[in-house]
Amino acid sequence: MHPKYRPDIDGLRAIAVGSVLAYHAFPSLLPGGFIGVDIFFVISGFLITTILLQSLAAGDFSYRDFYARRIRRIFPALVLVLLATLAFGWYVLLPGEFSQLGKQTTGGAAFFANLVFLGEAGYFDASAETKPLLHLWSLGIEEQFYIFWPLMLGLAWRRRWPMLRVVLAVAVISFLVNVLTVQAHRAAAFYSPLSRAWELMAGGLLAVMQLQSVAQGAASTRAWKKHLQSIVGIALIVLGLFMTRSTKAFPGWWALLPVLGAASCIAAGPGGVLNRYLLSNRVMVWIGLISYPLYLWHWPLLSYARIVTGGEPPLQLRIVLVAASVVLAWATYRFLERFVKLHLSQAVLRGLAGAGAALALAGVLVFLGTPMPRHDSPALQAVADATREDNYYDGFEEAALGNQFVYRAGNGKHDVLLIGDSHVEQYAPRALELVRTQPDKARTIYFATKGSCPPVPGLFSGPDTGCDERRTAVLDLALKPEIDSVVLGACWSCYFTGAGPTVNYFVDDRKAVHPFIGGDGIDQSLKSLGEVLKRLSAHKPVYLVLGNPVGMDFDPLRQIEGSRLGRMTAESGQLKAPMPQDQAQFNARLKQVAQANGAKVIEPFASLCADGECIRSMPDDGSPAYKDIGHLRPRYARSFATYIDPALLDEGAVGK
């Protein structure tokens, strides 16, 4: 049994898919567009719960029939998009990239893509833009819901548990998991079904309440209440689209805007004023009908465009790709999905299930290296390997120090705490190597880092990501007597010399705001850093790690010549790049601040640069020394970043 068709729900789907598409293609136009996925979750929760409860009430529910319908609905477009994405990936990707695409393909076909991406960079990280199947994380959440929820509802129905309380309990527990984990484990809160189930349960609650209302013969809601629900629902969604940002703790409390907005629109029914005249509009309904294949097609097109062009594609190309995704979505709906819907034979069902299983297996083979992509050579492989190295904390123990989450290695007599952003994190492999090779000399090493969060109190960017709370906590932790020494570092050039993204950082000293651009923010930052170093060095040894060379010259992909659509070759050997003079000059300024405030200085430039040039390659085999434009790859840091050793070994142990 299925709920009566509602065109306004297709219109709500149109808002959801349109928001996501706009965010991915034109992020500055709709900065909160990613909340469209949350709207999809509410719709799915409402429709699936309605179907399940109606079938259970009628006594004709069958798990086999339910999952067969899910396969017919999900697999046709998914199999086509996965096949096309994998084929084009073979044509344009490098070996390492193609291997990762294989893993994504298996995750997408087997519906655990969210768990695949949970172990990688976050959804909003720059590297996410070059993962052609990243968007399938949401499909993983929904399919895991389809596995869990029928079993849960069936059990509750047989035991005659109060259905409303069951759904409410699941929603409350999931919401608590969401808000309690979103700060400390942002990626897990984003990708985990445990922290997302409440959004589907919001739709489930609506389904239960509406069916109970019908069963009890309750009077229909007055028209003005439906109109109000419709207006409030759209208003909350619009508010979410323009107020939510990728830099905020999402989902968290912010996800209430799209979830409550979508729930309010559904509750209003087709008679609500905006449901009737906006959501039920023929254009909106048409977009809603193709929303699923449109969601599947749009991201691989945009992601491959970024990969092929080597950056943000031109506006005209993005517009063309949006139009192409609409055309492909319509064709998929018209010629594939409708065909499957009209041919409900067991042979079609088995064919779809078999195709999904075959793609999952193909993804495993690609991940293991069979077949290799078209662009395959040892030099290209070396570049690809460098860009894939990103797990700096591999081998570390996750621990708590005070009330802060840290990574720990070693059991030395003395403790050292490293604080800073990802440019401190990059030295974790070297720390682990010292613990392995010199366990009697290495200190107990704690890393308390946070990306894009320099250890300078009062320093902010416009899109702050909760940096200040973490920074304040770990700097207070550094003063604890159990910490014997402290290391501070950051990508100083990223913030102070323009080597990073163009952001008008500023210092808030609680008296005034000091911008970097057009103000004295840099001077105030150095003053704040000096005060931290002075306060810490009064109690224990303190090290300031200066920046390593940063810039496009150090990007491993710069070693590649040719076009991904044509022929590609890669340079190899001992390659170098001009020393960034502005960065060297700023490091000299930082050195003065450190020495004036009692801190010891660690100078990466002294090891990485000489005679006006800096290395780009590994000293042993000539492969890239960097993983991107600024981070030393783990393999380089592990073996060659010996300049950090004085901060990680006990006094007198260095060089012995």
UniProtKB/TrEMBL annotation:
GO MF term list: acyltransferase activity, transferring groups other than amino-acyl groups
Keyword check for Nucleus: no
Keyword Nucleus belongs to the record: no
GO terms for biological process, alphabetical: lipopolysaccharide biosynthetic process
Keywords: Acyltransferase, Membrane, Transferase, Transmembrane, Transmembrane helix
Residue span, SGNH domain: 410-644
Domain Acyltransferase: 8-334
Cellular-component GO terms for this entry: membrane
Protein name: Acyltransferase
